[in-house]
Amino acid sequence: MPLIHKDQPVDFCTDVNGHLMCVGDLDYVLSKLPPDSKTWYHEITPESFFHFHRSPGGGIFQEINGLNIHKLSESGLVYSPILNEINQWLPMGGGKRYYFDEESNWILSDQGLFFVTLQEKNEFLPVLKSLPEERTSTRGLIEIGNETLLAGTYAGVYEFNTNSLRRGLIEYKKVESNPNCPVRYIHGFQKSRFRHSAVIAYYNHIHIDQLKTGECYRFELRSHQISNIWGLAEIDSSHLLVGSTTGLFILDLQTGVVNPFFLSRNESQIDLRGIGINRITRGLYDDTYWVSSNKGLFSIKIKPSQGLYEGIVLEKLLPETPIHAITMPGENELLVTTMNKGLLHLQKSNDGWDIIQEFNTSNFLATNRTHSIEMDEKGRAWLGTDDGLYLICLDLGIARRFDTKDGISHNEFNRLASLYLQNGWMVFGGIDGYNFFKPMEFSKPGDSHSIGINALKVNYE
After folding, report:
1. What is the pLDDT of residues 116-128, one digit of tens each?
2. Is the pTM of this model over 0.85?
């Protein structure tokens, strides 16, 4: 190998795209030796090479959000946690400089040369944030076709053109309410299984909107002591299962009659009146449902009986635990968001359901109040909580937190406000708008993030 120029002081060298790159700290001269070349090329490193520098007496390293960082040493690249090595130098005076090569992901400082795997900037696209004279607390999402997303807020309904996400932006407009069915304070939406092009919206009332004709049918339920509807399921074309803060009910859409919906188990009746119902999720079969409540999680089966319907409790899980959302990563698995125990990962065994993983304030989460959850194509869970959005790798048992410093609109997220879109984007809503992002472009949580223990076995027990 030819000698580098005699006037070029060298601190560190490494391979970059087949070139040997050496950096000296006197004038920050960059020297390159191309492959199969016998000649070194030297230049004062151009300003475009540098991404950040710290002037004397101040500055922070906010520009670099490292997922993993390695330090170049005599033995090669050695793992180096960014929080423990680089950031600790920043409060010190003396005019240190920290340089970043955007193309090659190298940071040069007077403490050494580092290679960083970086998080992309502007990964989150916040929408409806801080609208004037609007309450943009969000709940309710439903995708209509391939290009339209309806999103509920306390101020009304917005329509998003999801096709515009290809350009890195989102176009939207506020939907004008039908005078016969004024819509505010949305809790959730659901596509009708039995009415073509119909959407059911719910909050303190229920609306059935025919999108193509503009017709709307409204059912006022407050007179039946039903308020704050959080769960809904179509049993057939004439009956809705309605879950609210005051219990579980069944609504006859033809007559408008509402009755409490009683559940039975082992010949004993379970009355859920007065028990808050937080969500109703379809089970693996058409006649089965998961009912999330403030008193645990119920698996029920609904069957006709003498012209009516009755519910049979198949299983009751996590008694006395307030449950919000559930999702099923596998046929015999459940992910359950709770209001006091974080996220629970359950697996079915011969003896029932076992908790095999817990994500809470004892290991990863900043709060135990968890709300919305979605699964991406890599089998990872995205979790909206009262304090941040989390990416959770179930196979590794680790998590990564995102907050307003990462570009989301607010740290507090809502229930019934998340959806995985057909175009590969994901959206989570909170108390200040919605956040769009591409989940598959996020790497798995690395060792440089929070580490905790979510399971401990001694002697394999």
Report:
1. 544 444 588 888 8
2. no
